[in-house]
Write a structure and sequence with these properties.
The protein has 418 residues and is an alpha+beta fold. The chain is built from 16 helices and 16 strands. The chain is elongated, with a radius of gyration of 27 Å. Bound molecules: histidyl-adenosine monophosphate.
Length: 418
């Protein structure tokens, strides 16, 4: 039997209505903040991610779907959207044309991770990137956008965790102090952590291993190594969040898993989804454009995992919520009613109504059953009688009310009870 690829899933039925509602939220709230949608190809040159995300990161080191195509080029299925957005902004000189470029996306992404609930090999992110501003107002803007989207999806069981990685200079000083400390405790730590001391020491800080955690508890703190500008930037972001009434907790060991970050980093986390507790994350990534050969463009953004947003909304609401309902189901009685019923259906569809007709030549009884199954708001019955009079009998399914109206008045009757 044919099957989906492991870690990849079909989205349909009651779940798809939840996706549509979420996608409407993404569109309207992004627009309210002045963000424009941007779409990039699913495939990029592999070196975009190697340079942008970093060779030593899990994403590039272990999780990318990479292959050589028929022209001999190494291509990768995109594992995230920030590097592609930066690539596109450089390619189209977007930032030179508009000093602040605000973009959002809803994209399918691919990471070869071990699948479990809330973690897939094909997943989707909604995200936004604010390109061109070094100021804390931009950091706060993207956090507020993410926060408003999560709230509008209807979620309550989440919290915002925030930290600063400081400037590249202050991080270099800190990195040296951290490596000295970790080397002194090397033998007490996991193999993974020992390897990371040499490749990506900051990542040791968010290790989940109990032995590592014990060592990390007394490790030097990045906060004590921040220069004045970095501290001022972080405090300004926090003050903007306070002013906007967005609650947060400072998580001093959060470093995030990608190399391009500096200054503000943040995550939206939940306790309601088991181990996959991050519903989204982001931060400032001023170094990225230069890493891709695009000059100096400060930028900040975030991505939310759509599957996790929707899983959490399912948990919180106790289900996927209402599936879409057709406005009208036209039941035909007898052969002659079929063509006129089809014409009425087309007229109403072109007026913006969702209308279902029978294409199985079924009995009136099984058409009624089908109308119930798809939960049509109204049912119209057209038979020889109605045809002669130029009318239909309309039944409002929730109340059971029935009324006979001329063909020309179906739309106004539907509109009278939305
Ligand atoms: P990330 O933390 O790698 O950040 O991913 C963001 C979110 O995507 C995660 O919090 C999670 O909800 C979702 N996610 C990641 N991997 C999976 C998976 N295998 N299955 C399901 N959901 C997943 C980024 O991708 C950065 N580009 C965020 C960013 C934007 N930073 C600046 N701008």
């Amino acid at each position: 039997m044919a099957q989906t690829v492991r870690g990849m899933r079909d989205i349909f039925g009651a779940e798809i209505a939840a996706w549509h509602r979420a996608e409407e939220v993404f569109r309207t709230i992004s627009a309210a903040f002045g963000y424009e949608e941007f779409r990039t190809p699913i495939l990029e040159h592999s070196d975009l991610f190697q340079r942008g995300i970093g060779q030593e990161t899990d994403i590039v080191g272990k999780e990318m779907y990479t292959f050589v195509d028929r022209s001999g080029d190494s291509l990768s299925l995109r594992p995230e959207m920030t590097a592609p957005i930066a690539r596109a902004a450089i390619e189209h000189t977007l930032v030179r044309h508009t000093p602040v470029t605000r973009l959002w996306y809803n994209a399918a992404l691919f990471r070869h991770e071990r699948p479990q609930k809330g973690r897939y090999r094909q997943f989707h992110q909604y995200g936004a990137e604010c390109l061109g501003s070094p100021w804390p107002e931009a950091d706060a803007e993207v956090i507020l956008l993410a926060y408003d989207v999560i709230k509008a999806i209807g979620l309550t069981q989440f919290r915002l965790e925030i930290n600063t990685l400081g400037s590249a200079e202050s991080r270099a000083v800190y990195r040296a102090a951290l490596v000295d400390y970790l080397n002194a405790h090397r033998s007490e730590m996991s193999g993974d952590a020992q390897r990371r001391i040499d490749t990506n020491p900051l990542r040791v800080l968010d290790s989940k291993d109990e032995h590592d955690k014990a060592v990390i508890a007394n490790a030097p703190r990045l906060r004590d190594h921040l220069d004045e500008t970095s501290t001022a930037h972080f405090n300004a972001v926090l003050a903007l969040l306070d002013a906007a009434g967005v609650p947060y907790t400072i998580n001093p060991v959060m470093v995030r898993g990608l190399d391009y970050y500096c200054h503000t980093v943040f995550e939206f986390v939940t306790d309601a989804l088991g181990t996959q507790n991050a519903i989204g994350g982001g931060g400032r990534y001023d170094p990225l454009f230069a890493m891709l050969g695009g000059g100096d463009t400060p930028a900040v953004g975030f991505s939310l995992g759509i599957e996790r947003l929707l899983l959490l909304s399912e948990v919180e609401a106790g289900g996927w919520g209402e599936a879409a309902r057709p406005d009208l189901y036209i039941v035909t009685m007898g052969d002659t009613a079929r063509v006129p019923a089809g014409l009425i259906a087309m007229r109403l569809r072109r007026a913006g109504r969702t209308v279902v007709t029978d294409v199985l030549r079924r009995s009136v009884k099984s058409q009624m059953k089908d109308a119930n199954r798809v939960r049509a708001r109204w049912v119209a019955v057209i038979g020889d009688d109605e045809l002669q009079k130029g009318t239909v009998s309309l039944k409002h399914m929730d109340s059971g009310d029935q009324i006979e109206v001329p063909h020309t008045e179906i739309e106004t009757t539907l509109a009278s009870r939305e």
